[in-house]
Amino acid sequence: MFKNATTGPTRQWDEITSLVAEEITLILGTLRAERRAFMQYQKARAEIERRARVLRAYQWMDHRAKVARTEAQIVDQARCGKERATREAGVTERNRVDV
């Protein structure tokens, strides 16, 4: 009789703990899956941001090089223009002297 009295509450306790453990296990599994998905999302987002920074740096360097080339072309054109103007001025002076 004493044995039967303790097995009843013990059995109920075991059933309750096993049900709670199953529910907690299911909830923990869901939470772990959500956490894993969120971690993958964060990792992908961080990689995209890193690549965006690298792209911006590359574009900045590329534009900087283009500006330097354009400035060099402008300086060369200005030199050529001055030389041409000097040559033309020399030609007109010679023409004046010749006339």
Q: What can be said about the biggest beta sheet?
A: none
End-to-end C-alpha gap: 145 Å
What share of residues are in beta strands?
under 5%
| Fraction of residues in helix | over 70%
E-strand count = 0
| Cα-atom radius of gyration | 42 Å
Order of H and E elements:
H
Low-confidence stretches: none
Derived from helix and strand composition plus strand pairing, the structural class reads mainly alpha
Q: Average pLDDT, to the nearest integer?
A: 85
Sum up the overall morphology in one term.
rod-shaped
Number of helices: 1
Please, could you describe this protein's structure?
There is one protein chain. The protein has 99 residues and is an all-alpha fold. It has one helix at 2-98. The model has no long low-confidence stretch (mean pLDDT 85). The protein contains 1 helix and no strands. The protein is rod-shaped.
